[in-house]
Amino acid sequence: MSREAHMLPVWFFIGALLTIYGAIILVVALVDFHHPSAVVLARFHPDLFAGVLLLAVGGLYTFWFWPGRRK
Amino acid sequence: MTLTSFAASAVFYGTDRLISLSPADVLIIVIYFVTVLGIGVYLQRYAHTSKEFFLAGREMSAWVAGLSFLSANLGALELMGWAAATYQYGILAAHFYWIAAFPSMVFLGLVMMPFYYISKTHSVPGYLQLRYGEATRALSGISFAFMTILMSGINMYAMAIVMKVVLGWNIHFSIWVSSLTVAAYVTLGGLYSAIFNEVLQFFLIWVGVLTVPILGMIEAGGWSGLVAKIHQRVHSDEYVHLWSTLGTFSGNPMGVHWTGILLGLGGVIAFGYWGTDFLVIQRAMSARDLRSAQLAPIIAAYFKMIVPLIVILPGLLGLALLPYRLVPESTPGEGLHTYNEVLPLMLARYCGPGLLGLGVTALIAGFMSGMAGNLSAFSTVWTYDIYRPYLSKMKSDAQLVTVGRWCTILGVILSIGAAYFVTQFNSIMDYMQALVSFFIAPLCATVLIGMLWKRATPKAGFWGLLAGTVSSVAMFTLVKVNHRFLAVIALSPNAKDMAENLYRALWSWLICALVTVIVSLFTTPRPDRELRGLVWGCTELSLEKSLPLWKRPVFWAAGVAILFAILQWAFW
User: Fold this and answer.
1) List of chain A residues whose C-beta atoms are within 8 Å of the C-beta of residue B196
2) Whether residue B184 sits in one domain with residue B36
3) Residues whose CB is less than 8 angstroms from the CB of residue B252 and which lie 6 or more positions away in sequence, other chains included
């Protein structure tokens, strides 16, 4: 069996990092929800959407490529 | 106009920082650095043999090899430089993503990759050694190593300047932290580590910058609103058309003719870069089988087609929406922003705390992926094509890996030296794009003729490559000495600097090809049996016949062609 088969897949690292980033951005978005920063279109709360999306995509990757889950 | 000239101007004139980071932004950046280092430490245990260290064990899937292939090219200089070029030239800059990608990347996958892969070589100079002999390998290996180190140093320095201008960071801090981080993870995990981090960086670049086109299009009122706003700003439609303004040199902001775009950019420069630059080809060669190696550049081509969404569109949005006009790097002034600041300015326009950290991380990730690509390619070429054949005749596999690790460290030290060298001689930075064309355009002719024409001889390969390189340098020097030669080389008195680059590449390619053919006709070719696996016509390539249609690389290449055609039609 190749070495690559024993490695954690790169997709797992990506999922984990996106999950962490999603959590950070979501927390910041919720804390600042009533006092958004003075950027253009802040009323749309893009950080909230981005945080949820990153958390969802990152979580999916992390779950799917969790070590030992896929043989 | 290049990002490097922006860097030079920043040194001379100084600029206030564009962006202030919150603690959440800093946390996101710190986590990024910890992650890439952690990946290097983790992958160290898998990089023991030379095949593992230099070619990632040749077991990467087509997706990983393809994304890494593109990510090695998608540096932050690329992101910020082409967003700036779009602000200056309009959508014409998209030619560098479309005509400069589709034909050449597909050609690499379908025609060239089988020879690189089947020959089991470790590098492009290694292929030239098998095809033409030692002299051609030495010439291309040394010029590639020289170019790679300079490019790595320039990238490093440009990143430090961008971090200084955008974030107010100290130049020395940026150079040393980024270079030591890249050195650590490439030295530990070799190409495994470089590829893993490049795929990670590819995702980060997308999620970090995607906010700008999404919110920008909402603010502009969609594509029609964007076009209307650009028209109000520049009173011209030239900025939103790809081909219809290229009938004359004076009819478009770039000052080029369609022949220059089609033959110079889409032909010589693109085929030279994608087909012969080992920096990107090394990623495809790491694939687990020939089919995956062929698919890697084709998968990358799909993503290359949509990269303008995060590069070209932000440039156009900056032109339409920023409440002030950006200025060229040559005319900075108090309170004025330059073209090259368009992407950071757009990030700062839409991204609050957290998202801004992600955007800045995307820029840092872009710089580091480019740097890691240069280092891993340098390490391989130095070890296999310079050190082993000419400096030491060692045989042991473990010794090669040790040398590869030391070469990575040597590459970092030389790159840092190059970065500081550039700080003393800023004008050199403006010549970097020309330096690339000196080596890449003629090399393209040498490799292509070698692969497709069995009559090409070893002596012809060497003399053709040398003639192409020397003629390219000569044309560049002539224009520097007397600018009137630009009209001769680019075939028009209305031609601008961009046209010179395209036509110089075209002429040097033709000169290399001509010399190669002429010398071949007067020298003795190698027998066919020595060219098996190296040349079209001497190699049996029945790779796809047993595969269902949808698994064949040519099927997916057709999809890229259709996407390309739709994009050209939509923005004609």
Assistant:
1) 10, 13
2) yes
3) B89, B92, B238, B245, B246
Same domain, B535 and B546: no
Give the pLDDT of residue B12.
37
Contact A18 B348 (CB under 8 A): no
Residues B231 and B379 in one domain: yes
Write down the mean pLDDT value for chain B. 84
Q: How close is the nearest chain B Cα to the Cα of A47, in Å?
A: 6
The arithmetic mean of pLDDT across residues B163-180, rounded, is 82
For residues B387 and B534, membership in a common domain is answered with: no
Query: Which pLDDT belongs to residue B1?
Result: 41
Tell the residue number behind the tokens 């084709």, with chain if given.
B298
Tokens matching residue B556: 């997916």
Short-list B58, B542, B499, B536, CA closest to B254 = B499
Q: Are residues B449 and B413 in the same domain?
A: no
Instruction: Indicate if B530 and B561 belong to the same structural domain.
Output: no
**Do residues B548 and B290 lie in contact, with contact meaning Cβ atoms separated by under 8 Å?**
no
Q: Supply B134's token pair.
A: 């030692």
Least confident of B39-43, B234-238, B525-529: B234-238
For B48, which residue in chain A has the nearest alpha carbon? Answer: A3
Closest CA to A36 of A46, A50, A49: A46
Report ipTM (2 d.p.): 0.93
B182 and B194 fall within a common domain: yes
Q: Which residue has the higher pLDDT, B218 or B546?
A: B218
Q: Pull the structure tokens for residue B510.
A: 């033709």
**Chain-chain contact of A32 with B348 (C-beta, under 8 angstroms):** no
User: Structural domain tally of chain B?
Assistant: 2
Asked if A31 has any chain B CB less than 8 Å from its own CB, the reply is no
> Measured between CB atoms, which of A6, A14, A44 is closest to B200?
A14
Domain ranges of chain A: 9-64
| pLDDT for B5 beyond 70 | no
**CA A40, CA A26: separation in Å to the nearest integer?**
19
- Which of these, B103, B143, B153, lies nearest to B442 by C-alpha position? B143
Positive/negative CA dihedral, B229, B233, B239, B244: positive
- Measure Cα distances from B51 to A3, B68, B122 in Å: 12, 18, 9
* Residue B37 pLDDT grade (very low, low, confident, very high; cuts 50, 70, 90): very high
Say which residue, B3 or B513, is predicted with more confidence.
B513
Whether residue B363 sits in one domain with residue B459: no
Q: Which residue has the higher pLDDT, B501 or B414?
A: B414
Domain span at residue B123 reads 3-427+542-570
| Average pLDDT over every residue of B480-485 | 82
